[in-house]
Amino acid sequence: MNVTECLKTRRSIRRYKADSVDHSVIDSIVSLASYSPSWKNTQITRYIAIEDSSLLDEIADKYTPEYNSDIIRQAPMLIAVTFRKGRCGYERDGSFTTKKGDRWQMFDAGIACQSFCLAAWDHGLGTVIMGVFDEDGISRLLDLPEDQELAALIAIGHPDIEPAAPKRKNVDELLQYR
Q1: How far apart are the first and last CA of the chain?
Q2: CB of 152 within 8 A of CB of 114?
């Protein structure tokens, strides 16, 4: 699959087959996502692959709204995407490099999430990035180190649906030349 095809055909998948996801495939996806650009090549993004059904149920039951819980309950795996805090957007003395302050951390995590999802699609797996959850609750449940922050959850598995492409905006709405 080439980049154009991958970008045009990848969809957010909200229903999955029960088939498990092979660990070697997840290893390959994370390896590919590690090539994502990051602030001063800090490579702050980390991944926790959650496949234990009791842990998935607890996340779904206690820490996510129903529309995300429904996805998590039937996905064979959930990826908790975290990042190392205090590295992106900072100078060595701890001051911010730009007006954006520490927001570069989420920017870099977002790039890595996109790369992860595209690599998963290239391996025939569907994904959906979820951003609405109890961050503190899931961070405690996963026992995240103090220097890491939870950025997103990504459900991943073999798609059980083939959603149509949503309508896209025209280029003239998205682009300006000056």
Answers
A1: 35
A2: no
Name the 3-class secondary structure at 165: coil
* Distance (Å, whole) CA 140 – CA 137: 5
Read off the tokens for 3. Answer: 């980049």
In this structure, how many other beta carbons lie within 10 angstroms of the beta carbon of residue 159?
Answer: 17
pLDDT tens string 114-153: 999 999 999 999 999 999 999 999 999 999 999 999 999 9
State how far the Cα of 160 lies from the Cα of 16, in Å rounded to an integer: 5
Cα(160)–Cα(94) distance, rounded to whole angstroms? 47
Query: In the chain, where do the E strands start and end?
Result: 45-50, 77-84, 126-130, 148-157
The per-residue pLDDT for 92 is: 84
SS3 for 63?
coil
Helix (H) or strand (E) holding 172, with range, is: helix 171-174
Residue 142: the pLDDT is: 98
The pLDDT value given to residue 90: 87
Across the beta sheet with 45-50, the strand order is 45-50, 77-84, 148-157, 126-130
- 8 Å CB contact between 60 and 72: yes
Q: Residues of the chain whose pLDDT is less than 50? A: none
Whole-number CA gyration radius for the chain: 17
pLDDT of residue 94: 86
At 39, list the tokens.
């602030």
